[in-house]
Design a protein that fits this description.
This protein is α/β, with parallel strands linked by helices. Helix content is 39%, strand content 23%.
Length: 175
């Protein structure tokens, strides 16, 4: 198994009881992603808005935190009394996520990431931008989701797999 490549996808609002990623998250996208990575024997993780890099051996409790991208900014939202609220410490949390991701990726020896989006990357741009800043150390301002994706595609550190066929092809290349 290559340790320098990590397969990731972003967290989901669909959660179950506490546990490892495939126990905590119930979304079909994460279940399929995890099963395919386990079957291929590759290193994988979930990019969590609350915890940063969530490895398959770790356990967390359910949470209601997500990242949103708008007008070049990534913001953190949490559900409070069934309402989505912007965290006042949003920028500090994003910086914490970037530093934590960078540190963990370095400790794991990860040099490249295959990011499984499971659809249009523009939809989850906040998560992509956090990974991009952590791995590529990009400090540019990206005002539109397409700018983030274009900048990522210019680097060799992150590969965006939009669908299952692309993910499967990348998994086979690493075997």
């Amino acid at each position: 198994m290559r340790k320098d490549i990590l397969f990731v996808t972003h967290c989901s609002g669909d959660k179950n009881g506490a546990g490892e990623p495939l126990t905590l998250y119930t979304s079909e996208r994460i279940q399929r992603f995890g099963e395919m990575c386990v079957s291929a024997g590759v290193s994988w993780a979930i990019v969590s808005a609350k915890h940063g890099l969530f490895l398959p051996t770790e356990q967390h409790n359910p949470y209601d935190t997500k990242l949103k991208f708008s007008h070049g900014q990534v913001s953190v939202y949490e559900k409070v009394n069934e309402r989505e609220c912007l965290l006042p410490s949003s920028e500090a949390h994003i910086n914490w996520l970037v530093r934590g991701l960078r540190s963990r990726l370095e400790k794991l020896g990860v040099r490249r990431v295959v990011y499984y989006v499971g659809g249009a990357p523009q939809r989850i741009c906040g998560y992509l931008l956090v990974v991009h800043r952590a791995l590529d150390r990009c400090q540019r301002s990206h005002y539109r989701p397409d700018d983030v994706v274009a900048c990522i595609r210019r680097t060799s550190a992150i590969y965006i797999a939009n669908g299952l066929a692309e993910l499967e092809a990348k998994l086979k290349q690493v075997e």
